[in-house]
Task: inverse folding
């Protein structure tokens, strides 16, 4: 049994030497680290844009050839699969500036939700309309009903 172990060890050493001789030094010459970040625009403009890095809103609007009539904070960085809703319809209610009464004028926002929105923006202004989903009680379904009435 001992001879078999020595024979297997010898074959392993020969195979390792042959493998090393063939030129594999264990280094990686290059790594393709290409990522694709997709941003979807909906509302006034419907487009899907691709970037090789997480873009700012400024970069997205520049790529889409749009001006910032929406009141966005241009330095905000968007993550992959972000849906940016763009609406410049007249009579929009500003999430960052509306009074409690103005917010309550939107169907689906009552006194409690209006108060939560104002409390949220007091701590941190809304950077995108989509951020309203961070307010307790406003999920995606409610957001989809409200977004056409809101701006920053």
Result:
């Amino acid at each position: 049994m001992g001879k078999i172990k020595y024979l297997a060890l010898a074959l392993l050493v020969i195979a390792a030497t042959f493998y090393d001789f063939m030129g594999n030094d264990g280094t990686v010459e290059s790594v393709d680290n290409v990522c694709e970040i997709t941003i979807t625009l909906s509302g006034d403009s419907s487009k899907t844009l691709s970037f090789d890095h997480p873009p700012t809103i400024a970069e997205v609007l520049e790529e889409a050839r749009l001006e910032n009539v929406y009141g966005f904070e241009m330095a905000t960085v968007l993550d992959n699969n972000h849906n940016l809703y763009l609406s410049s319809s007249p009579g929009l209610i500003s999430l960052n500036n509306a009074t409690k009464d103005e917010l309550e004028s939107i169907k689906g926002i009552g006194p409690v939700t209006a108060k939560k929105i104002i409390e949220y923006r007091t701590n941190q202004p809304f950077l995108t309309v989509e951020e309203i989903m961070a307010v307790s009680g406003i999920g995606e379904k409610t957001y989809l009903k409200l977004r056409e009435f809101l701006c920053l």
Summary: Helices lie at 2-21, 57-63, 100-104, 111-123, 140-146. The longest helix spans residues 2-21.
